[in-house]
């Protein structure tokens, strides 16, 4: 177990005109025993960051410290880390037992008996003791993933690195494994860096999440912080499913004008807008949109295009003029395509972003708990 | 009249549909698709093979039109001849050393090129093309090429270099042991390219993520090679081993051009022995018996390789 600090990490590939900046000045600190999720779309630099921590890629600039000690320049074997790969990366010619004991054989002076004992203990903990004599091709995806996790655990490393370990599993197994992984991490209390492109995984698993885009760190915080208080439009759109609705508006004093409606802010809210710019983007989460009977202030009409009943709730795809927007309503509210609805955006729930820079100039009013805010 | 026309039309339709049914039956039958290959194999492979077997049981000669079947006499003569065993010994040395060198050097080249390609280093394509060019040159040309290189005067390419470096002229082709070594060298020069192609292709099948996993697991480059690369290369290594062993056992043209089996009979490998038996000493029956023995050796080797090197398991 150890604290991990990434300081000004830059990773460039290629030279001259072909140069690609995969990771651009990323700073992240992970406390001892913390579970940090690096999340972002494909090509955002999350896997490269993880490979830099593992020592599989050389760092171009910046520093990576484990318990205050720089590990840049060290070989992967000298970093006290273990990694779980997206495609499990089990050695196909070895049995599960040989796969799990390989790292210990390579790096430790333990006797054969001691290695066997550790492997068997770990296998028991992972519930794979019956699979130890099988080769990877005889195992299902979930079993292979358990063996891959077991292989990382037997090493008892200071840090676990996980590169999209659940993305090759089917949806149901992914959910189960998600919980198992969390339980395991809490039990082992090992500092973990977990990479995923799936925001649901990020939200549900991480103590904290770091959102990357184009190699740059967009925001780092607890899942709810990132959800409720996004620092920019990218984070707001990336975190949450269905994603936040964005509507371009022009600010005229306390009024926000959209082609289809006009939204009047209270004086207090208008004062809270942290910008003088008039070109803004109004953001509202689907579940924050309210259906009203038309008499409400700031209410406007929208046409239902498609409904997606989920049981407990229904996602309603709506047209506001030419613009598409999604609202999540209670499962017992029945709406049909073509129907006209009156909507309103509660003032305390709206987000405003600078249309040019994307920076959040007003977030929804916080409803986080004290402990959540303290993080 | 009208009835007759419609009847004719009806017959035409029936005939057309019958022909089309027949066509599709022919098309869908596996025999149609197997037949060309089967005929080709029978005419060019099976017939000569059967003929060689038949000839091996005769006392056929190139200068005597008559021959008779002598049962296993030809084989017993071959096995009782000291020449055969001496040629076998030369062949075993020639094949054994060539195969080891070809696999070893092929592996080194394949690893170097693989490393170069992965690192984006210049020159890996040039290396591949130059090594490959050795493979596409016919054996007879290689024999002549090496004969020129190994000329035993100070004007021979290699001897010139040796003399310039302060050494003496080496009898590459007139000394028995050196001639065998030179033959092995030339054969290795040619065969390494094939090994390299096979092993390089095999290396592309070893996923990079397994190497990454092994690096994380703390394996040194040598340990990764020993525990990850080699086991995953085993199927390719096996095929390579079988093929180059068979090619080398059957090598004939290059040796003929380079040493002609000499000095004396120091480099007369079995294939050459067989050729001389047929076309110098005109004993077609004996030559056929040697061919059959060589065929059996090749078959037995393949079976042994399959049994012991690959086992019954594939991963």
Description:
Chain A: This is ABC-type D-xylose/L-arabinose transporter. Chain A: Part of the ABC transporter complex XacGHIJK involved in the uptake of xylose and arabinose. Responsible for energy coupling to the transport system. Chain A: The complex is composed of two ATP-binding proteins (XacJ and XacK), two transmembrane proteins (XacH and XacI) and a solute-binding protein (XacG). The complex is a heterodimer of chains A (375) and B (315). Chain A is of the alpha+beta class. Helix content of chain A is 26%, strand content 33%. Chain A contains ten helices and 21 strands. Chain B folds into two domains: 55 residues, no CATH class; 230 residues, MetI-like fold. Chain B has 13 helices and no strands. At the A-B interface, β6 and α2 of A face α9 and α10 of B.
Mean pLDDT of chain B: 84
Which CATH class of the largest domain in chain A applies here?
A: Alpha Beta
Percent helix of chain B, as a range, is over 70%
The number of distinct structural domains of chain A comes to 2
- Looking at the structure, the CATH topology of the largest domain in chain A is Rossmann fold
Which spans of chain B have pLDDT < 50 for at least 5 consecutive residues? none
Largest interface: A-B, 25 and 19 residues
Q: Which range best describes the helical content of chain A: under 10%, 10-25%, 25-40%, 40-55%, 55-70% or over 70%?
A: 25-40%
Give the gist of this structure:
The complex is a heterodimer of chains A (375) and B (315). With 375 residues, chain A is α+β, with helices and mostly antiparallel strands.
């Amino acid at each position: 177990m150890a604290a991990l600090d990434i300081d000004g990490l830059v990773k460039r590939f290629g030279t001259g005109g072909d140069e690609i900046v995969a990771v651009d000045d990323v700073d992240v600190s992970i406390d001892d025993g913390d579970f940090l999720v690096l999340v972002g779309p494909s090509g955002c630099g999350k896997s490269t960051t993880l490979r830099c921590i593992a020592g599989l890629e050389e760092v171009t600039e910046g520093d990576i410290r484990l318990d205050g000690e720089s590990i840049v320049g060290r070989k992967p074997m000298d970093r006290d880390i273990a990694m779980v790969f997206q495609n499990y990366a089990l050695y196909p010619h070895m049995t599960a037992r040989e796969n799990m004991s390989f790292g210990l054989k390579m790096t430790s002076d333990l006797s054969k008996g001691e290695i066997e004992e550790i492997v068997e203990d770990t296998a028991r903990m992972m519930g794979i003791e019956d699979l130890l004599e099988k080769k990877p091709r005889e195992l299902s995806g979930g079993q292979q993933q358990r063996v891959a996790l077991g292989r990382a655990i037997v090493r008892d490393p200071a840090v676990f690195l996980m590169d999209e370990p659940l993305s090759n599993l089917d949806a149901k197994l992914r959910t189960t494994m998600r919980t198992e992984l969390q339980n395991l991490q809490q039990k082992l209390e090992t500092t973990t860096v977990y990479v995923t492109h799936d925001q649901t995984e990020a939200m549900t698993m991480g103590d904290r999440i770091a959102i990357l885009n184009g190699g740059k760190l967009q925001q780092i915080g607890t899942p709810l912080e990132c959800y409720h208080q996004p620092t920019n439009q990218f984070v707001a759109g990336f975190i949450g499913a269905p994603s936040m609705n964005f509507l371009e508006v022009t600010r005229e004093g306390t009024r926000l004008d959209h082609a289809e409606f006009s939204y009047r802010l209270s004086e207090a809210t208008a004062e809270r807008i942290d910008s003088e710019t008039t070109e803004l983007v109004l953001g509202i989460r689907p579940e924050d949109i309210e259906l009203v009977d038309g008499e409400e202030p700031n209410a406007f009409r929208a046409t239902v295009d498609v409904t997606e009943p989920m049981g407990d709730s229904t996602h309603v795809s709506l047209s506001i003029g030419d613009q598409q927007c999604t609202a999540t309503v209670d499962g017992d509210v029945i709406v049909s395509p073509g129907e006209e609805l009156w909507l309103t955006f509660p003032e305390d729930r709206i987000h405003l972003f600078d249309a040019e820079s994307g920076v959040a100039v007003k977030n929804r009013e916080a409803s986080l708990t004290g402990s959540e805010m303290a993080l | 009249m009208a009835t007759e026309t419609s009847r004719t039309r009806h017959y035409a339709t029936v005939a057309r549909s019958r022909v089309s049914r027949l066509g599709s039956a022919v098309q869908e039958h596996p025999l149609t698709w197997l037949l060309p290959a089967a005929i080709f194999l029978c005419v060019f492979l099976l017939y000569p093979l059967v003929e060689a077997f038949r000839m091996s049981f005769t006392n056929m000669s190139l200068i005597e039109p008559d021959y008779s079947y002598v049962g296993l006499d030809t084989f017993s003569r071959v096995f009782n001849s000291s020449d055969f065993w001496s040629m076998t010994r030369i062949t075993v040395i020639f094949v054994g050393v060539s195969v080891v060198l070809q696999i070893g050097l092929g592996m080194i080249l394949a690893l170097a090129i693989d490393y170069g390609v992965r690192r984006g280093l210049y020159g890996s394509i040039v290396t591949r093309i130059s090594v490959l060019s050795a493979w596409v040159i016919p054996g007879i040309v290689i024999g002549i090429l090496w004969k020129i290189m190994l000329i035993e005067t100070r004007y021979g390419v290699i001897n010139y270099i040796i003399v310039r470096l302060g050494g003496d002229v080496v009898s590459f082709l007139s000394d028995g042991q050196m001639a065998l070594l030179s033959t092995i060298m030339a054969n290795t020069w040619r065969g390494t390219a094939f090994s390299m192609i096979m092993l390089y292709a095999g290396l592309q099948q070893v996923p990079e993520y397994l190497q990454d996993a092994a690096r994380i697991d703390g394996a040194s480059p040598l340990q990764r090679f020993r525990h990850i690369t080699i086991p995953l290369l085993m199927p390719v290594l096996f095929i390579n081993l079988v093929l180059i062993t068979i090619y080398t056992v059957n090598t004939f043209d290059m040796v003929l051009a380079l040493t002609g089996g000499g000095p004396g009979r120091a480099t007369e490998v079995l294939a050459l022995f067989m050729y001389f038996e047929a076309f110098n000493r005109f004993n077609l029956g004996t030559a056929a018996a040697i061919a059959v023995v060589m065929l059996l050796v090749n078959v037995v080797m393949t079976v042994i390789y399959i049994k012991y090197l690959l086992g019954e398991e594939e991963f």
